[in-house]
Every structure is written in structure tokens, then in C-alpha cells.
Amino acid sequence: MALGTIAARPSPRPSAQAVPGAALAEAARLLESDPAMALARAETLIKAHRSLPPAELIAAQALRRMGKGQSALTRLIALDRAQPGVPPILWELAQAAGEMGDGRRAVAALEALTRAQPQVASGWYLLAREWRRLGEADKAWRADLSAIHASSSDPELVKAALAMNAGELDAAEAMLTARLTRIPEDASATRLIGEIHWRRGDLAEAMAWVEKALDMAPGFDLARDFLIRLLLQTNRLPEAQAHAETLCASPMQSPAHRLLRASVLVRLGDQEGAGGIYEALLADAPDNAHVWQNLGHVRKTLGDQGGAVEAYRRAIGITATMGEAWWSLANLKTAKFTAQDRAAMQAAIATGPTGEDLFHLHFALGKALEDAGDYAASFKHYTTANRLRRAEITYSTQGTHEAAVEHAVTFTAPFYATREGGCMAPDPIFILGLPRSGSTLVEQILSSHSMIEGTHELPEMMMIAGRLKSRAEQGEFASYGDLLRSLSPADRTRLGEEYIELTRVHRQTDRPLFIDKMPNNWQNAGLIRLILPRAKIIDARRHPMACCFSGWKQHFARGQVFTYDLAEIGAYYRDYVAQMAHFDEATPGAVHRVIYERMVADTQAEVARLLAYVGVDFEEACLSFWENKRAVRTASSEQVRRPIYRDGLEQWTHYADWLDPLRQALGPVTEAYPDPPQDWAAHLAS
């Protein structure tokens, strides 16, 4: 702790002994192990030299460590008067005053200390603690912020941060651990260790360290910002919201705080709240293209297509190369591009944007040229967009196939025959399959029923499955299947109850049933049946060529990493069909299949079948689903706000000449549709 030193004044008597530096050092060393002996040595020095401030300080420090706080405080007050403004005296005085409940005196000492040494974070941290004890939350917060500012130039912390950013995580952690041994209440070092764990992929440990940093310094805004992002990664939304509210109350107001809070509200489904934040930010800074884009996303989700178009075009008007804004316009599906728009996108690409801007522009221009009927040029831009996006992601078709095989091997009829029980809640309705299969239409139809609440694509089941799979991957079990076979009835019930509890945050009404529309949950159909045996499972299916091509030309905000290569999405669809065919055989009647083309051809009959499977009475509102004003966050948000139409059924045929990789990957699935191909069992055995 660099708080300076006290000069030892020599005695004015010519015969006085030289200042006893060695004796002072020995007394100081005794403070922690034997404060009583340190006091005795200091008193001897004081008596011998009449006026020896370093010995006076040691004596006061010893008294405080011996539990004689008032005696220590009395001596420190006198010492401060004799040598005002000396950092070590002020530090000790502040601690003694704080321990004796004299907060005002502690604050006065610490304010003098931080004026003298503003670059030393520990003084600011202690000042924040004292202000907090006095109920001065705003002043405490500002002191914490000053501590963090001081830490940013601390050479030791800078060295550790540079090592961390260079990927030398072990070396950085060793530096920080050594520092915390000397300075246990260093919030900046504590947060950095949290970041090291995050970089290693250990989110739980990262959060524990960042929370510890916030316990030390509740006004550490950067740590709270980091914690909110970690909570969002782990889908702990209520906690993220609470911290976001706190962050927005910071005395150091920042638009970034409000943007982060808006992101949390979007995840919670409070689109109106997020939109209000974006509109307020734009009132202050109307030239922020990213905020306009975010506002466009909110308006799209709420069904305000005109407002969304306006917002996206405002973003593009500010930054012409903003690829996501162009793609967001294209992704409205019902918005049409002009020749001027196509020229503007070509010009934007010609300026040489990189990364997301570039592939978003190619996806958007592909859609604009498709609308214009120039399918050859459209396909070239879709191809470029997918190639650029595919280069950024990791995906294994073999991994998907092996998971489908393991699912079939594990979830058999005999497996379920010996495993009754689980969480018996009837609430969830899972809609699964591939994206762009008509699942949003099914969701909109069901959520128009008075008994059913629509939420969105919930990640909770995938998180539970991922956690279980990681135990097998870490060697706790020989395979995921072995782990599932080991689950007791109590385990299965607990996991189902965990899902119900985790998803409660997404439910905004008192309707008894709710929808989870995560399409990838086809990979978890067996687990769903195991831990939630009364849940409904709806498999939304669309013609494989139409579905896969539609997914390939779509850029998804997250996930769906299998969609950026025609052969890979075809292989994915084939594995999905085979696995679901096996699951149908193992659990007859457990899954209700909605064939998109049948829904389009005879909507009333298909809706009646769907509602009968769910177990609710028929309601006319389900046939007028486009009148449902609920927020819809998927790529089909605008299409489900109008009656069913046939336009998209054959759209893929315009590109048929270029789709051989997809056709070959699908194999016999296409000809057999809507039934599974006869070789589905052999496919799972391969």
C-alpha cells in the first residue's frame, strides 16, 4: 500500500541518539504477530527520543490491533495534529475512527488522504466504505469510481491486464493472486481474476469473482456491466435486470448503461420498455445509427412494420455500410427494395466493409435481387454471404449425426417402459423442428388461444441438456446415454421442475399453458419426454428443399450454425427426420406433426387437429391468428401477421438449378416427404 512514510524528527538536543531505524523496523514487523511487544518497543523508543512520530504511529497501530481502539484513536488524533497531512497517519486514523463508529472523522481523514494521494486506490475504497456506513450512497459510489480510476494506472494491475490480453492467463492470475494476498480488498484485481476465468470458459467461477468485486466496491460500474453480460450469457435474466437497474442509477450516467438495460428488457420480452429507452437516447443523440437499428428491431417485434422500416432507414441514412440495418429491412420479408436501394447496397459493398457488415450486405442484396426476379445474381450474393459467415463459425455435421444416433440408441421403448415419473407439470408445449419450417405460424395459432401463452425460443432446455452432456464429456460418465440411464426418479423430477422454474420469467400472463418454440429442441425430444412426460411436443415440418433453402438464405441472429452451407443443412435435415422417425416408433403418439403444406391447404382442419392434441377446446381466434398483437421475435414475424398465403411454397424452385449439393445431402428424404424415407433406420445405424 503506497501511502508514504513518516519522517522521524531528530531530538533538538545535541546529545540525542541517532534515529533508531533498525529498532523502528523491528517494532513494525512485530505488529501482526505480537502487537503487545510492538507497543512496548514503540513506547521505549518514544520515551528515549521524546518526539518520534514513526514510533507514535506504531504504538497506535499496536493499540488498534490489541482491541484498544479508543486509546489508538486518541493518539492518532494528536499525531495528526502534530504532523498534518501525512498519508500513513491519515490511513490509520481513518481505520481507527471507523472502527470506533466515528464515521465523520474517518471521512475527514480519508478525504485528506485521497487529496494527498489520489492515485492510490485503497484510500478511495476505504472512503467509499465509510460513506456507505454514513448512508451517503451517492458519495460512496463516487469514491468507488475514483478507486477504479486510480487502479487503471497502477503499474502492477496494468502488467497483469497486459498479460491477460496477451493470452498469458496463468501468469496474469499468479500476479493478481499475489497482489490479493497483500491487499485482500482490491476490487480491481478481483474483477480481473473473474475475467481470466471467463476467458477460460468457466462462467460460474467468473461470476463468483465479479460478484466478490462488487461486494468490495458496489460502485464498480465496469464490474457490474461485466456481471450483467455474464448473467445474460447464462440466461439469469431477473438478476441481470436487477443489476441493470442499479447500473442505471450510477452518478456517472452513461448511454451505455441504458443500452445494456434495454438489452436485458428485450431478453425478458419487455419490448415496449426497451423501445422507450431507445427513443429517449435518440432524443438526446439522433445520429446514433446503432440505436436506430435497435429501435427498428423492437418495432418489428411489436408488429409496427412502418416504424421498423423508418428506423432501419434512419440507421442506413447515417451509416450507409451498416449491413445489419440493410439485412433487417430485407428480413421484414414484406418490405420491398427499390432499384435505388440495390444500387446503394452495391455501392456500400464496393467501399470494402468487412466482417458482419459485409456478409449482411450480401444477404440483403441477395434478397433484393430475389424480389426483383434476378435469381442468378441473387444466388451469387447468397452464396458469398454464406461463405463469409461459414468461415467464422465452427460446426460438425458428424457431431450432429452422432448425437442423433445416440438419441436413437438411448431413447427406446424399453427405456421409457422402466422409467415412469418426472415432473408432471402439463404447462409446456414444445414446438421443434428446423427454422423456417412454419413453426412461428404454429406458435401464433396456438398463442391466439385463451389457454395458451406464447413466449419465444427459450434456451432453458438446451442449457439443461448441455449441462448434462458436459458431465459425460468431462469423463464423469462413459457417454451421455449412460448419464441419462443413471438418472433416478428424483433426478428426473428435479430436472423437470428446474425447467419449469427457469422459464417462469418468460411468462407474462396467467394462462395455464405456454409455448417454447426453440426449434433445435428436436435434439432433446427424448430428454423432454423423460423429465416432463406430460409436456406436448409438436414437430413443425416443411418440404425439405423449401425449408433448407429458406434457412440457407437467412442470416440468423444467433445459433443455427448448420444453415450456412447447402450440404450441411441438407445433412442436418436428414438426421432430424431419421431421429424423429425413431422417436415416433419408441413413443407412439407422443409427438404431433404439423405439415406446413397441409396447414396451408386446409387450415381449419389442421388447427382443429392441433388443438385436440394439445387438449384444449377449439376457438375461432386461432383461425384469425394474424390479429394476435403479441410480440414475435423470429424471422417470420411479419408473415404471421397476415392470413396464410401460398407464395412461399415453391419459391425455392427458382433456384433449383443451383441446389444440387442440397438435393444430394437430403438423399431419399425429399421423395419420401412428408413421410420419413424407408432407410431412416439404416441412416441411424451408419
TrEMBL record:
TPR repeats: 187-220, 289-322
PROSITE patterns: TPR
GO terms of molecular function: protein-tyrosine sulfotransferase activity
Protein keywords: TPR repeat, Transferase
UniProt keyword annotation of Transferase present: yes
InterPro entries the record matches: P-loop_NTPase, TPR-like_helical_dom_sf, TPR_rpt, TPST-like
Matches recorded under Pfam families: Sulfotransfer_3 (PF13469), TPR_16 (PF13432), TPR_8 (PF13181)
SUPFAM superfamilies (alphabetical): P-loop containing nucleoside triphosphate hydrolases (SSF52540), TPR-like (SSF48452)
Presence of keyword Transcription: no
Name of the protein this chain belongs to: Tetratricopeptide (TPR) repeat protein
Organism: Novosphingobium sediminicola
Organism ancestry: Bacteria, Pseudomonadati, Pseudomonadota, Alphaproteobacteria, Sphingomonadales
